[in-house]
Specification:
By secondary structure, this protein is mainly β. It is built from 2 helices and 44 strands. The strands form 7 sheets. The protein has a 21-stranded mixed sheet that branches. The protein has a 5-stranded antiparallel sheet with strand order 17-20-24-28-27, with no helix packed on it. The protein starts with a helix and ends with a strand.
């Protein structure tokens, strides 16, 4: 038996040496021990490492243009001089199976929104280098282990999902959402802690009214554009928020800016010192945190046009285009709403106008239909203009509209307080599975629903959950969709 294993190992080494510098090869190991010889530079397409007793050991540079698949029963071992370079030109999937990478380089030039898809948690013990390509973590995490480091990312490479860092050193989380890169940093924790962060390109809970600020004399509202969800196992060091596009973030005056923290009931004023400019800069909290949860930008004196006083703003795909609907909580000297649209979440153009009531303390409903529907993600925001010409932006929402006959998922309201409605249409399989995950990836609810004539409707009552960001995963046959939702107080 020992001879047979050694024979397989020798044959594998010969095959690897023969194909050094040649791509489009698949390494398929099932139940054997594989060692890549030191000094061998290996270029290959896919790795499949499966089966009890399967090992894949390397201490050199591996360049992979396809998928990395390591099952839970198999292991891979990264040596001190090892690195894995993901440099595909199409979307790649990484499944670690519980093993750790040492050095990872993301340099995927795919034109898809997400270059890398995680099949489970990805743990890195040395260095994560983000050069090109966005990582879609979904319900999983990118874990930067104790002693490991990572760059902050760039506009074309970051993690859409949760990044967790363990240790006692300062760290900047390379996070973003969709097409938006928005890092967040922490000072050095006082004790060893695992701190996680996730960025969401939408408003935090209860952001729009001064009545939800813990102290109205210090802060009037928080961003209607973005927020970060943070969690910790112990220490709560100072937080640094980044903005990479001041126009998108609604930042016009640094002296009016503050760090804000939602404690589950109201937004706490965390003060802050700024660097950079209104176009590109940072703000670091100067008051101590007692806990973590959503953090965002705050406006001290209503100068920065961070939010708009809307109760809701939503989109629905219809046979006529994208139907936009919004409800205003109150209006004072309002002139109207300019509807703006973008295909990249950065560059917006005006596509319509709806006049406002002017002055009202009643709930008012508005609607607009965008009949020009591109076959890609579409981002919308409202610019509410007063009669004196001053304006504020709403939060930005995204609409995904599909061709007739394709599966459609609707999750609303978002944010929600008690009940969450999930509707699915055009499904071929008999059943749909719905999972609800917390920010740490733990399943907190699971539902199996029957598709009747290709459709289902499910009301999820999770009123006992704490206010935070949650992930809903919907699976029906080969269909798989992940939606981020926010629970309000």
């Amino acid at each position: 038996m020992k001879y047979e294993v050694m024979k397989k190992l020798l044959l594998f080494s010969i095959v690897i040496l023969a194909f050094v510098g040649v791509q489009a090869q698949t390494i398929n190991n099932s139940g054997t021990k594989v060692v890549i010889p030191d000094g061998t530079y290996v270029i290959f397409n896919n790795l499949i490492n499966t089966g009890s007793g399967a090992e894949f050991n390397y201490n050199n540079d591996l360049t992979i243009s396809g998928n990395w698949t390591n099952s839970n029963s198999a292991v891979f071992t990264s040596g001190a001089n090892s690195s894995v370079i993901f440099n595909g030109t199409a979307q790649q999937t990484i499944t670690s199976g519980g093993s750790q990478f040492r050095n990872v380089v993301i340099n995927n030039t795919s034109t898809t929104d997400y270059a890398i898809i995680l099949g489970d948690d990805m743990s890195i013990s040395a260095q994560l280098t983000l050069t090109d390509g966005v990582i879609n973590a979904g319900m999983y995490q990118v874990k930067i282990l104790n002693g490991a480091t990572s760059g902050i990312g760039n506009t074309g490479s970051y993690v859409d999902g949760v990044v967790a860092k363990t240790g006692t050193v300062a760290f900047t989380f390379p996070v973003g959402d969709g097409l938006v890169w928005a890092p967040v940093g922490i000072a050095a924790p006082s004790t060893s802690s695992t701190i996680s962060a996730q960025y969401t390109f939408s408003e935090g809970p209860l952001n729009w009214s001064a009545s939800y600020m813990c102290d109205e004399s210090q802060m009037q509202y928080t961003s209607g554009v973005e927020h970060w969800d943070m969690a910790t196992t112990s220490a709560t060091p100072a937080v640094t928020l980044y903005w990479k596009n001041g126009t998108r973030s609604g930042i016009t005056d640094l002296t009016d800016l503050a760090v804000a923290h939602f404690n589950g009931t109201c937004w706490e004023y965390m003060e802050g010192t700024t660097t950079g400019s209104v176009a590109d800069g940072t703000i670091t909290s100067t008051l101590p945190f007692s806990s973590y949860s959503p953090v965002s930008f705050g406006s001290k004196n209503r100068i920065n046009p961070l939010p708009i006083e809307l109760l809701s703003f939503s989109s629905t795909c219809s046979g006529f285009g994208v139907d936009l609907e919004w409800v205003s909580a109150s209006e004072s000297n309002s002139y109207g709403y300019y509807i703006e649209k973008s295909l990249d979440a950065v560059n917006f153009k005006e596509i319509g106008f709806i006049g406002a009531a002017g002055n009202s303390n009643q709930l008012l409903n508005y609607s607009f239909t965008d009949e020009n529907v591109e076959k890609q993600a579409k981002y919308y925001r409202l610019r509410m203009v007063d009669v004196d010409g001053q304006f504020k932006y709403s939060s930005t929402i995204v609409a995904f509209c599909y061709e007739a006959g394709a599966p459609v998922i609707m999750v609303y309201p978002n944010p929600f307080k008690d009940d969450l409605n999930i509707i699915g249409e055009n499904f071929r399989d008999e059943n749909t599975i719905i999972y609800v995950y917390d920010m740490l990836g733990k399943i907190i609810a699971e539902y199996k629903v029957e598709n009747l004539n290709g459709s289902f409707s499910q009301i999820i009552n999770i009123h006992d959950l704490s206010p935070a960001m949650y992930t809903v995963k919907i699976i029906s046959g080969s269909f798989n969709r992940i939606v981020k939702v926010t629970k309000e107080q």
